[in-house]
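Q: Start with the shorter request: fold the first protein.
A: Done. Sequence, then structure:
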Amino acid sequence: MKTPPLLEVQNLHKSYNNVEVLGGVDFTVRRGQVKALLGPSGSGKSTILRMISLLEPADSGTILLDGEPIGVIGGRVDVRPAPERVLARQRTAIGMVFQKFNLFPHLDATRNVMSGLTTVLKVPKKEAREQALEMLDRVGLSARAHAYPAELSGGQQQRVAIARALVMKPKLMLFDEPTSALDPELVREVLDVMEKLASDGMTMVVVTHEMRFARSVASEVALFDSGQIVEQAPPDRFFDAPEHERTRRFLAHMH
């Protein structure tokens, strides 16, 4: 029996002020797969991550995680948006890393990483601290465990943000342009952490402009344009033999 995808997005629609941002998007991500989402600004890439991470509701469509609908409650007939307490529980299975690091400025790196453990999962502080230190070590920041965000470089802050998401043991990690706010020399240290996560089998959806990362790390690459997926394919085919003219124009512009 074939196992279902870890993530399945079915016919997802979203509009803001009568402007359609997502126009019926479908895609799947298998367990252990890395899916890279490419496309011009405003094409809907970040919006779909916000839908999947339950930060915003979809207008219509279905999101399944491990075969179960998320963001809604009820049966097929009386489906309705889930209340916040249900959303909060469902969000723990999904890690989200943003462009901006969103760290608490008054907390050091360790307390930033352990914040979700203590407030959401109610893990005792001693145990949460141990898990946070372990996760900071995993992203190469054990020596900066007691540094505050203002004392860290952008790359270090982003790695703290990744550790904060990872410590919740999510089934799925979402990255929304995680290197776009960084100075060029700091990009590599964040991509190295993401590449290590991929090699460890973490299931990831990554919105990125880093073509080299998409080609070398992604299992599948998708191009978004005007709220639709124009093309999705394994990286070799996507970059070397794209089927669609829109993909060819996008890649020519990026190069």
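Q: Next, the second protein, separately.
A: Sequence, then structure:
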Amino acid sequence: MATINDVAAMAGVSVTTVSRVLNNRGYISEATRRKVYGAMETLHYQPNEIARSLLKKQSNLIGLIVPNVSHPFFGELASHVEFHAHRSGFKVLLCNSHLDPVKERDYIEMMKRNRVDGIIMGSHTLEVEEYRNLRHPIVTVDRLIDESIPYISADNYRGGELAAQHLVDRGCRKIAHICGNLELQLLANRRTDAFLETVRRHGVQHVVVQTDMNVFDQNQYEEKLEAVLREHPDIDGVFATSDIIAAFAVKICRRLGKEIPQDVRIVGYDDVNAASWLHPALTTIRQPIGEIGRLAVELILKQMDEELIVREHILSVELVQRETT
């Protein structure tokens, strides 16, 4: 089995130079880099990842905890996190919490054992003190955990305002707002705050329907939507706080014989890829999912390098008008 010394000898460089190439440290000319990688390929040399991890005191692993990766928003977020982590030489440990504190704690312990270099939290059910004691770089997505932990969020208030104003501008006079459970105290609740302030300012009738505590249980969406549309047959607008819920709204309207957008106009949230595939294509509020993933990785790396970082990162949203309005 080839060693680093064999690679150095074949490439005509020192062992230190080979090590610097492998760890991307210091200036290395492109010619030297090609020689080293050429020698590695010829000798079938595989770096000892465990030894490199111990030497650098880092694992090149980033943990990502999400509520449910099957949800399109979190699936796309995970894809972007992995892409940007890989570009920086890191791999991602992906964990589904399913909003279960026991699972979340188990995943946190697993990450400790695997010596992850940082954790991106897209889900949290544990007490804040457990995160303070981790002593790992942490970034949260759409969750405000603690004054000391940086977080990334799209501008939820502006998103709710844009959605409500668009439905009002399109002539809606009674709007149903379908949102997650507001007791969860998530930053996404600001979408509802903005919606309520906007419709009240315009004197528009409205109905608010919350999901159960398990906001990602899709089985409840159909039942709740059908109930509110049957109870309030004069509803002519729907603002759903996810594209998935909005897609169910389209389905239920069709079942009840309501034409979209003639009878009911619908606005979703997130602008996941599927929003443009639906028929009719979904009007929605676009979150910059790719930028959220990129920034999450960047903030982990900056903390690893002990750089000063800003705690709050609020990203812009925009209305994407399609066929449902």
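Q: Describe the second briefly.
A: The two ends are 65 Å apart (CA to CA). Residues 4-47 form one domain.
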